[in-house]
Amino acid sequence: MDPVTSSPANLVTRLIMELDACTHCGSCSLNCSAAMVFEAAGNEYILPSEKMAFLKNLASGKKLDDRQTRAIQEGVYLCTNCDRCTVRCPSGIRLKDLWYSVREQLLAGGPPLAHVLTPYSFARGLMIRETVPVDEYTRPIETAKQALAGRFVDLMNPDIPIPLNVQTKEGSQPAIRDNTYAHCFSCQSCTTVCPVVGNYDNPEQVVGLMPHQIMCCLGLGLIEMAAGAQMIWDCLTCYKCQENCPQQVEVCDVLYRLKNSAVESIER
Amino acid sequence: MKFALFHGCNIPARVAQYANATEAVCDRLGIELVEIADFNCCGYPARNTDDRAFVLSAAKNLALAEKAGLDLLVMCKCCYGSLKKAEYVLHQNQDLKADINRFLAKESLQYQNGIQVNHLLSVLYHAVGIDRLKGAISKTYSGLQIAVSYGCHALRPSNVTGFDDPVSPRIFDELVEITGAFSVDWTRKLDCCGAPLTGINDRLAMDMAQKKIASARESGAHFICTACPYTHLQFDVVQTRLATNPENGEPLAAILYPQLLGLCLGIDQKALGISENLIDLSGINSFFMAE
Ligand code: SF4
Ligand code: SF4
Ligand code: SF4
Ligand code: SF4
User: What is the pLDDT of residue A140?
Assistant: First the structure.
């Protein structure tokens, strides 16, 4: 049955039947591609067998608290859609279809999820984008962006001058462990070669701060301003900036670090 | 010649023909590929949010290959870049390495930088070599123009990936040219295909793909040649979506490198999954000279 074209009622029936068929044998988790992310993040709902056990409880009417909602939402999202669990399940449960549909349901009702702004979304963009209403598809992306980007100053608004006295939170300095940005002499080569900047007539308005401006902010200690720029989430990680920097500033890696710390800060 | 084949997550689920074609080509060339069932995600998708989860994921794969005493043959450019990056980071940061090894010890694994990470193209170019490949070819294309897409994560940052010259790479072009095809010069050859933002900022991801396709078409290419599942899906699935808008022009089919080479090695179309690409590839056969 196609999870996409079949009617919602059929889908629910099938979900319940599949949940019933699960014996919690654990085979699916043995070779889960995300097993090491489970080790690092400590969220057991990353493992497919634990997601199944949880969904079973949920289907039997169990209520969720906020912490659980967040954990299951994250667990279902931190899946690479590799299909290995489906191949391994001795009960023949099509877990991959379950993940796609459960993921959409959890995203629709849940709090903003930072992981939506990572390549974990690739399969969603490829397989789901055209199968759900546009606003259902984009809402999780927009709410994650709102939660993560542009939190400190309205960088997108050209009429608001960027204040240079933005306070950096105490202890935020070590979040950027890599300080190659200190060698930046503002030649703008990184920005010149950046395909994202090049895609727009008005890049400042779209991306907030351009790569060289982000490096400059960091040099001035304005870490939170840098971390609030839309640019860090629109970065393709193509490494052109880094390859072309005459000062060996690790521009793309610095953007990766900023993303990591932005996520840490909303999780705290 | 023997390698551990690293499939990654995208290929088994969405580009199975890439693995099938790679296996068929390697078999023909006498390269033995070993499957390691415990390999997991290369860590690439975790890089945005959790550096440690990324390195841990990558390191487990490296440690597994090390335990088997095999160098890696990686088909995906993002997996390749991610495994190379983890190797680099673990070399630079001994504290992190100790931390990661404590985790790996739970599974009786250890990472000691004992193996080499290779992309499929590097294995064909460096380990097999152009001369041996030429010797194995049974028929060549004539008049075929190919636009090779190098792939950001293999090429850059070059001090980490060590794949080829980041400014004027040659490996992929030479590998294409041994098939008799001409590797065209195109302005967006070294640019991003947009895949890293598919699902995050689809408009931007499609703009990147569309610009590359337009540039390849302008250069006279008949096909875009890919050697990465992400790039391939951009030019196959996402391009199909783009092609629904007539302004974007006729689609320009993508062919995976082992498919392109495999046909010249006389491997069966079916084994190469020629009909499994979404955008029809069959036109490629008209470039073989009538015998
Ligand atoms: S599809 Fe997701 S849950 Fe299943 S094995 Fe792959 S990563 Fe794990
Ligand atoms: S392998 Fe199948 S039956 Fe076993 S725990 Fe996973 S989903 Fe349930
Ligand atoms: S290319 Fe390097 S030195 Fe020049 S502005 Fe960018 S980061 Fe600074
Ligand atoms: S890595 Fe990001 S910032 Fe650097 S050039 Fe590419 S898209 Fe621009």
Answer: 96
Q: Cis peptide before A119, with omega less than 30 degrees from 0?
A: no
Task: Report, in angstroms and rounded to the nearest whole number, the Rg of chain B calculated over CA atoms.
Answer: 19
Nearest of A115, A192, A195, A99 to residue A147 by alpha carbon: A115
Q: DSSP class of residue B237?
A: I
**How far is it, in rounded angstroms, from Cα A169 to Cα B18?**
48
Q: What is the DSSP letter of A163?
A: P
Residue whose Cα lies nearest atom 1 of ligand 2: it is A89
Interhelix angle A251-267/A134-148, nearest 10 degrees: 90
Mean pLDDT by groups of 10 residues along chain A of 268 residues: 49 77 95 94 95 87 83 95 96 92 88 94 94 94 86 52 46 58 96 98 94 96 90 97 97 95 80
Nearest to B15 by CA among B89, B160, B120, B100: B120
Running DSSP on this structure, what letter comes out for residue B288? B
The chain-wide mean pLDDT, for chain B, equals 97
* Domains of chain B, earliest start first: 2-119 (1.20.1050.140), 131-287 (3.40.50.11810)
Ligand 4 centre from A240 Cα, in Å? 6
CA dist., res. B256 & res. B87, Å (int): 27
- What does the pLDDT look like over B280-290, one tens digit per residue? 999 999 999 76
How many residues are present in chain A? 268
Listed in sequence order, the residues at least 6 apart from B268 whose beta carbon sits closer than 8 Å to its beta carbon are B24
- Separation of B12 CA from ligand 1 center, angstroms? 12
Q: Could you give the CA distance from residue B178 to residue B234 in angstroms, rounded to a whole number?
A: 26
3-state SS assignment for residue A140 = helix
A136 φ/ψ angles, rounded to the nearest 5 degrees: -65, -35
Interface contact B41-A34, CB threshold 8 A = yes
CB–CB of B87/B113 below 8 Å? yes
Alpha-helical runs (H) found in A22-93: 27-30, 35-41, 48-59, 66-77, 84-88
- pLDDT of A56 reads 86
ipTM of this predicted structure: 0.96
Q: Which domains does chain A have, with CATH numbers?
A: 8-149 (no CATH), 152-267 (1.10.1060.10)
Cβ-Cβ contacts under 8 Å, A84 against chain B: 12
The two tokens of residue A264 are 């840490």
Contact partners, residue A179, CB within 8 Å, separation at least 6:
none
